[in-house]
TrEMBL record:
GO MF annotations, alphabetized: 5'-3' RNA helicase activity; ATP binding; hydrolase activity; RNA binding
Record-annotated membrane-spanning stretches: none
Record carries keyword Transport: no
Keywords: ATP-binding, Helicase, Hydrolase, Nucleotide-binding, RNA-mediated gene silencing
Bias (Low complexity): 1082-1108
Top-level taxon: Eukaryota
Coiled coil start-end: none
Species: Zeugodacus cucurbitae (Melon fruit fly)
Domain (C2H2-type) ranges: 206-226
Protein name in the entry: Putative helicase mov-10-B.1
Amino acid sequence: MCDTFKTRDGFLQFTELKDKNECVNLENITAENKVVKPNKAEKWEIEAIGQFLFEEYQNLLFGVRTEWLVRKCILRAKYVKFIANAKTEVRQRLLEANTKYGIGTLLNRTNYLINTNRDSPFYRIRTTTFFEYTNKLLEEFDEKQKNGQSTEIMSNGEECKTAINGDPALTGSLEVDENAPTHELLYEGSQLQLRIPSFQLTNMGCYICQKNFISPNDFEEHVLSHGDESDFKILEGYEKCATPIFKLSYNICKNSHYFRFNLESLKPNIVIEKLVIVQTRTFYYVNNTRVPYALDANRKDSFFVDSHLFRKGVVQPIVVVFHEASLPMHNVEQHHFCRIEEFPVVHLNINPCRLPNKITFKPKFKLPQYMPPVEIRRALQKDSMDAPLAELSNEFRDYMLNKKTLTHHNAREVVLKLLQIEDWDTMREYSSLVQRNVQLRTYENDYILKLKLPKNIRFENIIFPYDDVIVLPAEESNVLSTSIDELMKKMEQLVDETAAKQQTAQKKTKKYIGQIECISYGRVTFKCQQKIPSDKLYTIIFRPSRLVLRYQYRALEQMVAMPPCLLKELLFPDEILTRELPVFNLNLLNKTIYRNPEQLQAVKCMVNMSATPSLVPYIIFGPPGTGKTSTLVEAIYQIYMLQPRSRILITAGSNGACDEIALRLCNALSPHIERQTITRIYSRSYENRAENINETLLEYSNLYADHFLPDIDVLHSYRIVVCTLSMVGRLATGRFGKEKDGSGVFSHVFVDEVAASTEAEALVGITATITANSRLVIAGDHQQLGPILNSKRAANMGLEMSLMERLLTRECYRVDEEGNYNRQIQARLRRNYRSHPEIVKLFSEMFYKGELIAEAEPEVQQLCRDWHRAPNADYPIIFHSVFGPEQRENNSTSRYNPLEIQTVMDYVRDLLCFGIKGHKVVQSDIGIITPYKKQYIRIQEELNLRNWYQIETGAVESFQGKEKNIIIISFVRSFTNNLGFLDSRNRLNVALSRARSLLILIGNPRTLSINGDFKQIIELCQLQKTMVGAAYYENDSKRPTNKSNDATLQQLTKSMEKLNVGKAQGSNGAKSKNAKGKAKNKQAANKTKNATKANESAASVNDVLKSNNSSKFKSKKRYFYYKLRYMKREKAQASALESYDVDR
């Protein structure tokens, strides 16, 4: 039984009956009818009652679900328990005070109570006062996070210290790697300033310049003047001394991501006021709880900073603000630091699984360049390219005439032409980025180049890490043609084997070829093995890294060598006669699969594939959370255990998908691990990210020490090999997957996330490894993210269609109207084990015709029920309405939305500070998705300032295949007529399906509603009363109004106008200074006329009021004014209550 009360929305469950019984016993304990204190509450009372209310708020005794109503007898009983368990001084004082005052009196005195009738059984909590208290807690929590003190506010209102990440606390635990070199920072300038003793730094202030800002935009603009993006404009007012007072250097710490920075002063008696690291949009103050402090007699000091605070390839100033003892002036000295590695390498104590590194990989042949031929280039330069392309080959002409349909006759030629279009269009964009007469900035072996481009060129969408940078002498600029054909020829002259070419280059023209490390804020950082003089001017050409494309060209070449019958059965299977499904028992590792008929049948079919003569690929269609990876892992495990002669290759387009399967297999096979069981092969580009890889995975990989590629014969000796499709292409140059006699090595090839790869990419893994004795399994979901292409022309002509999506259109994979399909060659998973049933229902109805079945554990639903900010206990999807404008930076198509960033951080702070019903929320529980790079970079910067490095933030692409308990999505787009790639249904599907328990959507509902899918989500949240934030009405005419109040307001406004009470009236009924000035000037211009009009106006209102000086007139004016103000305030409060805006 429950104690309930009726509201306008029906009956709301309030509290359990046991609390009601307690009310009967404890109802008369309090003494609200005794002597009342003076109205003004003491500070300790406000905080104590706030702490008590906050505990009950977290326990869901009241809140938005109860419309902030709480039964009096229950709150009294809770209060008696609260003060009876006094553990703090504040509670003890309440216990003493309780002999005179009850909770009702204290609520009223502390302004937490909205007046209610004495006969009412409920208190109504004043939200404004209550949120003032919680906001104060969040601000204190936020400040401690920035200072490196990690605390959470638990349900008892007390701070629970979990870790100290701040610099002072780390000095005893961090150890510097003695073998690592010491690197000096570059000194850039100094400035002598007059110290302002009264200056108090705010959270939007600059201690360097001793300025505080009110506007966030002004503050951000000021920070930019200190940073890399403005070319350090602030240094224009600095002087570069011959000898700086400080010498700054840094060391890399051992087995951690921290840098130790070292200060050494050349002068004695120095007092450090602030140590400032200039971030992109704010300042980070190091040792903020320690400063100011005087240097020791040795004039040296050090401090530790997490490397996450520094963006790779971005020059960041480290500023020392100091003064000499007893002097009124202080000095500002600026040094520059640039992080050139991804992160400091963390050496793990692991035992490698004997993947031999003595004999390494050697290619058997040189991979050709495969440059697009001249006829393709000419055809693409014409306005209408269909006819010229059709003339190039009969196969391509047939393809265009037959509605872009691939057949086994035209497949190779058509895919080749589409790949060449993609290749050429990509290179065309690079030709627009030629830089002439530029100077390089040097940091060890890294070079930084600031791009100078027209505003219409968005370079960040063209160049990417691992692209090539060709550095030529500046004089080459005069002979280098601007035509794209000439630039292409120049690129072709410089092949990939750069080291050998550079050794034999002509002395007259010295060339350097480097590789891009990162692109950020208009700057490109690249690495070059040779030393490039920094005192000269250069011409820079960018060239795309075409290795992946060249592997695809090679795969298309290998199609010619494959038997036509094998190629047809693999890529163009015909209708297959239905056979009986295999019936046999399996000892499953994952016992939950026994309860899932689709998964169980899929595992049996894959295990039985080698017993059937058919070479038709087995397809697993796995919507989000349906256990696709679990099914693959179970099948691979059973094949490994039951078929000792099997050899298995597992590949996918992304490292994330490969890692997920490999890690699960390592854990599953751990009791059966032998010397050559499983290995995970990474490319060299992953070496700097080794610290992000699971230790178990590293143990079975080629990254347990320095990166190496093992010999092909060594790889062939392993039962299971896991690597990406591009790595298969690299290894295929050493005849990976083929024995010396040409037969195949692998009995089974599994390609995961095949729907996210083009058909050409999938062929890289297939043509190199599949033979007549192999069996192919592909898995994915074409309703999620598809292939990423640079050329819209190639995409529109069919290159964007994946192998999986095309195969599912074949007759043998067809699903009839009743949902029946051939289960011998495909499995369609539909039971979702990940998400809350309401989340599953949302994306199932939007993208999967409502076919998915929610089967998640009950505890998945509990998190929403227990969260104090969830408006509806049974609906975990919250839409937070925000009307903040989107913004863009110069030379960037990427957008960001500052107000949405602030809202995201509000939710993160609340979750990490308060937890959920007294239980801690850890950082890894939260994922933040946003479609725009600038937005997630700015969010990541805010997280880094607070030492929250475990909260994963990124674009939709980086979250495919992942899940989090709590997902926060910021949509960014606002006040625009189109949504860009937010219109992609596949992208929205991935974003919505990542959350397990809570899904928080943040955006502009009016802008997003131009898309039907978004409009459906917003209407659902409105229906479930989970739309919070700024009030939003689809149609302004439907805005709820109080007709009687509106009529009264209109009448009062007209009366005020007649009495000359204008808009410029102050709160006391008098005119503002500006209004007075205007009136005075106007009166001076036409005094007689104005006086006459004033008298006429007064007479028309009331004959009794003879002039504006009448006391009756003044009383009437005051009456109208205060009545109007009161009515407007009541209307605003009613509107706020109806919008359910409980978020400040």
